[in-house]
Design brief:
- By secondary structure, this protein is mainly alpha-helical.
- The N and C termini lie far apart (57 Å).
- The model has no long low-confidence stretch (mean pLDDT 86).
- The protein is 76% helix and 0% strand.
- Keywords: Membrane, Transmembrane, Transmembrane helix.
- It comes from Streptomyces osmaniensis.
- This is Integral membrane protein.
Length: 71
């Protein structure tokens, strides 16, 4: 049990340190990490397109599964 507690303490300490460093970096450089609206729109369109294509392929395979067995 004490090993689990020690590991948990180390992980929490590491996360707190990373969080503090990230906040310090964000206050020092507030423009870091800004994403333009165009980039977000492109990513959403790409993911939506990929899901539509995957759904279409799954629907075609499900519909013609019996006839595709001989291939």
């Amino acid at each position: 049990m004490r090993y689990t507690a020690a590991r948990t303490r180390r992980v929490v300490f590491w996360l707190a340190t990373r969080w503090r460093d990230a906040l310090e970096e964000a206050t020092r450089r507030p423009d870091r990490g800004d994403i333009s609206l165009t980039t977000v729109i492109i990513w959403v369109a790409a993911v939506t397109g990929a899901l539509v294509i995957a759904g279409t392929i799954a629907a075609v395979i499900a519909r013609y599964n019996g006839t595709l067995n001989g291939i």
